[in-house]
Design goal:
The chain is mainly α and about 70 residues long. The chain contains 3 helices and no strands.
């Protein structure tokens, strides 16, 4: 079996990277919405962050960045 030309391989890998970046962005948005729901359940960003073992600034930043449309 012959290896495709490098240009074709590069193009295919670039397309794959674009797909993966889109999927990662969608996952970040879903995660942020889940974090927002967690804040609603636990009452505060601080309480959620403590429960998850994360910094409250990381949680607040994710919610702000990915749930604001």
């Amino acid at each position: 079996m012959e290896t495709p030309p490098w240009r074709d391989r590069l193009r295919a890998e670039d397309e794959l990277l674009e797909q993966l970046e889109a999927q990662a962005e969608a996952a970040r948005r879903r995660r942020a919405h889940a974090l927002k729901d967690g804040v609603g359940e636990l009452g505060s960003v601080y309480a959620l962050a403590k429960d998850l073992g994360l910094s409250w600034t990381a949680v607040a930043h994710a919610i702000k960045k990915y749930t604001t449309e």
